[in-house]
Predict the structure.
Amino acid sequence: MESLVFFGAGPSKIPDQVLERVQDELLDYGGTGVSVMEISHRSGQFQQIITDCESRLRRLLGVPDNYRVLFMQGGATGQFAAVPLNLSLTGKADYFITGTWSKKAAAEAGRFLDVQAVLPAADRFLGIAPAAQWKLRPDADYVYYCDNETVEGVEFPNVPGTGNVPLVADMSSNILTRPVDVSKFGVIFAGAQKNMGPAGTTVVIVRDDLLSRGLKMCPSVLSYSAMAKAGSLLNTPPCFNIYVTGKVLEWVEEQGGVSEMTLRSDIKSKLVYNTADSSDEFYLAPVAVDSRSRTTAQLRLGAGADLEKKFLQEAEQAGFKSLKGHRSVGGIRVALYNALTVPQIERLVAFMGAFAADNRQ
Ligand SMILES: Cc1ncc(COP(=O)(O)O)c(C=O)c1O
């Protein structure tokens, strides 16, 4: 299978070394005689797994002591509800809407709070309006943004400044691909299924002082304070997923941590965007240069949808799987998550070059 390169945008590639380690331990976890999927979440073995997983994440991201790390369920979509339910104080929040996922998050929050858009309304999401156009309320309960819009390939180049208003970030599709100063945030959350493991667990990093807020109606499984009190074991967690997430984090540490992942993300994304930018508009990268995603690159073919179809077919035959853009935007999406290697992206851009040479009109 060496020649297959898998670009699934979520669920996504898990490093082969991790899958092999999981396979080795699958039938007998640590001499227990049973699979890690079968042991109790109240057992000493699982307590060790979840504690290790949290410690690794804390080390990798430099999470300060006044933040809790929670492993929750319900996916990132569950967090679209959990955030307003947990952070409401006066009942209003400001949302940056820069693509599909922040739009969905704002709509969900609107069921519970007065939500105001920070940016002018847009039909298409191809960048982030300059700060002079932002409307931020100094008395909002929090400001929300999506650090990387997976569908449109729009990534914030910097953490947006929100003064003293707590900042909430959805980092589902770029966590662990660049350094993050956690102390700038009230809450960071990320579904595991792109850069941290299989779908099923959602990492939530929340500042201690925010645990005493929220709406009474918040269900306990979505409650940050209830989860923090229970050490993420309020109910049966997705034990296997947390175990694999721990293995992925171990792999990231072995590879050189977030600094090495940052370096690789920069190299991989530059390879793709440089190929597009130097293709004489055979390939187009429509997102504004300063907010082009380093983890989910959006590309179009200048000649249109028919040639895109041919590109995707030939790419598939050449072993490049799942390059099709999200159904809502079409085109090509190159997922460049941590498990994708630089040599694999070099192979892809070589294929892109050859395809352009053969199909230029
Ligand atoms: C940035 C971002 N936020 C939220 C979601 C929704 O995640 P989930 O399917 O885990 O609810 C996704 C899914 O791809 C995403 O990419």
The CA atoms of residues 204 and 344 lie 31 Å apart.
